[in-house]
Amino acid sequence: MAPQASGKRGRLIFALDATMSRQPTWDMACQLQADMFTEAGTIGGLDVRLVYFRGLAECRASPWISDTAQLAKLMSRIHVEGGHTQIGRVLGETRREAIADGVRALVFVGDAMEENVDDLCAKAGELGLLKVPVFMFQEGHDPTAETAFREIARLSGGAWCRFDPGAAAQLRDLLRAVAAYAAGGREALTRLAKTDSGAAAMLTQMK
User: Fold this and answer.
1) Domain hosting residue 183, numbered range
2) For residues 107 and 175, is the Cβ–Cβ distance under 8 A?
């Protein structure tokens, strides 16, 4: 089992595909994190590590951040660049952090998958053993990405959801639900589902 994070604050890794195909919705993603923090604040707090990949093998991770304004400022400095997906590196970073200090969950927002799916599934299975669910939020309808994202979520004990391009409210609700889980566990997610029959109820179905 993964070590628990110190203190009462939940710890969430929020990973983004920052390759060129995400350009149309990148600004939206930068705005929605504020809603995620607002939800967590009503439950007991949340620390977030932002991870993103883009360009030629560039994959970066921020320090743990608890301040909404600081995270928004950091995200506003990131610009998309052409390149291939690096989901495997995101999963690997999450595993290292889970073993070192404890992580409640991983959120990944992306629209493509250009890696060896078996390698990704192996890493997802390792996160499942560490009790770190992966919430895969897919933008669009790419079938290759959907197959991989669904399996990553299943093997880690998380959940897969699709959101429509430009559907800010839909992604906002999904992120709020995951924030509730990361800050307060399944009990907090269940409480949220009683007042929100959409995203929170969907995520309560994770194993």
Assistant:
1) 10-203
2) yes
Answer whether residue 177 is part of any domain. yes
Residue 2 lies in a domain: no
Residues with Cβ within 8 Å of 151's Cβ and at least 6 positions away in sequence, in order, are 117, 120, 121, 124
pLDDT digits (tens, 9 = 90+) for 9-22: 889 999 999 999 88
CATH number at residue 70: 3.40.50.410
* pTM recorded for the entire structure: 0.88
Structure tokens at 155: 């093997």
Q: Is residue 3 one of the residues assigned to a domain?
A: no
Residue 104 CA to residue 42 CA, distance in Å, equals: 17
Q: Which of 154, 183, 132 is nearest to 3 (CA)?
A: 132
- pLDDT tens column, 114-170: 999 999 999 999 999 999 999 999 988 999 999 999 999 999 999 998 877 667 777
Buried b / exposed e across 34-45, counting CB within 10 Å, b at 16+? ebbbebbeebeb
Cβ within 8 Å of residue 7, ≥6 positions away:
none
Rg (CA), the chain: 15
Give me the number of domains the chain comprises: 1
